[in-house]
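Researcher: Quick sanity check before group meeting.
Model: Go ahead. Protein one:
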Amino acid sequence: MTTVKSGTAGGSRHLGNTGLEPSALAMGTWGLCADAYGRVFPEQRTATLARALDQGITTFDMAPTWGDDGDSERAVAAAVGSRRDEMLYVTRVGRVAGEYGVLPAFKPDELRAQCEASLLRLATDRIDVLLLQHPSIDDHLRDDSVRETMIALKSEGKIRAWGASVSHVDDARAALVTGSEVLCMPFNMLQPDMVWDVGSECREKGVGILARSVLLHGLLSGRWGEKKRFTPDDQRMHRWSHDALAARVRQAIEFRDRIHAGVPSMAALALQFALAHDDVSCAVFGPRTPAQVVAATEAVASGTPLTVTDLQFIYNSLR
């Protein structure tokens, strides 16, 4: 069904055949900079990014649409400062914020303009991984001009690798056909199917996988009860109905039997699960506080990796 390993939780890893070596954990900045889970004040954002650097995270996942006019990119660049060469920057193109919300922008001149704007905000001469943000199959992934633009940006040295951030298996496969070198897609204990379905294809093509939603928007932190409710400024309020959320929480509770000395929390279990898959290069998580950064990095760096028995328990629970 899938290839797994029971070790190698920390340190750098290989991102497919790109030659890039991301940290095991990448810091996602959607919740931190787009206020997706409620307001994050500037001083908290700064402290959280600083703690990520202190804890050895070298990979940052961003998008110009996360926050006002590229806030996530500016925040990361400010935190990293002179350490840019030690870092791996992942950002996105293909979506722009407009008067009526976030709109697609995949024409060659639009992609180029977005890339140039990101380079300026990130205060750098190259982007390590540039992802097409939720491209559609017919309008974007089958458009030769999109692929040609990304290849040209790479040949010009403005990006080092390119790929797509997708949410469905069909989109992932179309992105592979297009020539993507990296795929960013959901992978967690309750939603493992995409990586299970296309992992072997990625491996055969040398495509790196960035696993996102590894904590499923916080649900796999192990702290929620069936009556969990969100504030009006938290996008999770609209993600699940009350009944659907309660059902998800009950599913997550089943994994508590796998918490032991080497896996001290549900969050640690979820992070180690994502990193235990051989085809996953990096697990993207979205901390909003310095304490969350420390808990996650310690769970990965010092926790005993999941055993084959742990993994088999999780797989059996999902059947």
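Researcher: Fine. The other one?
Model: Protein two, sequence then structure:
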Amino acid sequence: MPFQDAFATARLTFERLTEGHRAEMRRFQADPDVMRYIGGVRSPAQTAAYFERNLRHWDQYGYGVWVLRERDRGDMAGVGVLRHLLVEGEDEVEIGYGFFPQYWGRGLATEVARACVARGFDHAGLDSLVAVADPGNSASHHVLRKAGMEYERDFDHDEGERQSLFRLHRSAWG
């Protein structure tokens, strides 16, 4: 089943990352609360590199980063992710999410995680998905478990940054 550039869940719309999202993504990645557990605030040059890498990912794989909006509002709420990621030299496909603080604590991360899992298994035909979370981010660990993922191990990611790896196999899903 092919991917759509846009789709919706009960409370959110997902839009494929495009050139038109540059300013919103810069604002997102400049927010210290948003970026606290996902690598820290990015400079304009780092955001531009992230942006270009993720536009190429869409071109190569047909999925990637989505900009999230509440269905009844137009403002960017956050991002949802389904993309390739190297984990200790192994090519994996990760699910992920991030939100502006005003959207925290409302169950939206679980909604996004489940939607990304469904897209990974139903649309991309993958057999396994991973998620990466800061070891100290217990809220994200809780969300990933609610989405069906299980803690696998901690590992050193991106220049030695310690992360927790979660995994879900298609055979254990749904």
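Researcher: One line on it for the slide.
Model: The chain has one domain: 12-172.
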